[in-house]
Amino acid sequence: MPSARKLYKNSVVLPVTCVGRIAGQYAKPRSNPVETLADVTTVLAFRGHNINGPGLDQRTPVPDRLLRGYFHSAATLNTISVFGSQSDPIETTSHVGKGPITKPTSYPRTILTSHEALLLPYETSVTRGRHCTSATFLWVGERTRQLDGAHVEFLRGLRNPIGIKLSSKTSPNELVALLNRLCPDKTGETGRITLITRLGALNVQAALPPLIKAVQSSGHQPVWMGDPCHGNTFTTADGKIKTRCAMTMLEEAQQTYAIHRRSGSRLGGLHIEQTGESVTECVEHIASGSGHLSLNYRTLCDPRLSREQAMLFVARFANYAQRLDLKTETHKIFEQRFKKLRSEKEMVDDLAIMDMPFVEDHPQELAAFAYQPPLIAGMARS
Known about the structure:
Strands 1-6-9-10-11-12-15 form a seven-stranded parallel sheet, with helices on one face. A two-stranded antiparallel sheet has the order 2-3. It is α/β, with parallel strands linked by helices. The model is unreliable at 90-104 and 356-382 (pLDDT under 50). The radius of gyration is 26 Å and the shape is globular. Helix content is 38%, strand content 18%. α1 packs parallel to α8, α5 (172-182) crosses α6 (204-218) and α6 runs parallel beside α7 (246-262).
């Protein structure tokens, strides 16, 4: 995570906050409460180490696992706290006088923690006042964000930063109702709510713009985050392995960024599932096949990008964002400059008033001069 953050931070020249789904992500929502085995018998699904174990003989829920989860969370926090005492350098550019001045600045390496507020008995037991201490950032998921449900009721009483996962099934009215419930103070808590879209590469063009428009009309000011992973999970042809395609995930992330730019909004972050290990759980391209997945497929739930895949993903996305920003800003400059130019007729009339006879003889040459593109066009090509 720190390596990916440093890469993106140096690309966009902005401070980047690193939030890890770590030190507490020991409970998992499952689409099916049971798992069907090859012999057609069923067992309880693995619900995360806070509840039961991945082995077929470990599926009975054990309350003592909550204590073990708390111990491992505390141990993980002690380990990653070392990063908080160090800083990464970053160059920032400011404009003073005639030209830009670049100066080094340091930002802390702090890794904040997050997970889905799924297991309410655990979350409530570590809540002090209006702050849940199990993580800095808690979110409500696709299966637990019912407006009248217990999870939304628990989260609306907290002062923690809160996330809301949104799929392509989320309606604009439902989203605004959730924002009203979790953050009734629209202007006094700007950015406390983060909207995490997980729409799928095939759905983002149709699903995202109405959600953005509804939020803008509501007056709420959340942070938008893109999750290109969960909406693009599929099973291999033999039905045995869950995986994801890195290029499909990148396509959704790029589309999400572009849609926000066109809508007058801003994508404030990326949510990616990765590990620091060299696992083989995601394919690079659909056409590359899935034969290599069994080499080091270690996940117990969802497939993750390897460290190498995650770094390449961030680099590709940052490069796309930079190019799109440059193209957008260049277009704005063109518009501003052309607005200042008067029409050919106005210029001809003005020059005629000044008694310049060559105007009527060479109107096309004058028009070509008047509409010559600005020199900044060369920057866009480079």
